[in-house]
Amino acid sequence: MKFSWVTVMVNNMDESLAFYTEIVGLKFNRRLNAEAGVELAFLGEGETKVELICNQAIEKVSIGEDISLGFQVNNLDETMKMFKEKGIALHSGPFQPNPHLKFFYIADPNGLKIQFIEVLLKQ
């Protein structure tokens, strides 16, 4: 068995695609209509993807508070600076729970927490 994708329900496909490609930096893979009023998009490279689903029958998607998507970056300070320059507020952090790791969160357009992580030292 292999992990293939994580699905994120979104309110607005164009807004979410812009966020995940321009802000998070995921590569656009493909976009398609699944059925009337339901659109899918896949993002990312390699085996694991992020799948966005926009269903026009759902007025507002509900995102749980206890879930996040995590992305590793080379330099957390530079990433935070880039978000600040783009007017994107931090949701929380930065945190450094140990000498090996620091991270912070922002929120996507639907309220899903997106975590950016820098590994400081190899364990």
Automatic annotation (TrEMBL):
InterPro entries xref list: Fosfomycin_Res_Enzymes, Glyas_Bleomycin-R_OHBP_Dase, Glyas_Fos-R_dOase_dom, VOC_core
Domain of life: Bacteria
Protein name according to UniProt: Glyoxalase
Species: Acetobacterium bakii
VOC domain mapped to chain residues: 2-119
Matches recorded under Pfam families: Glyoxalase (PF00903)
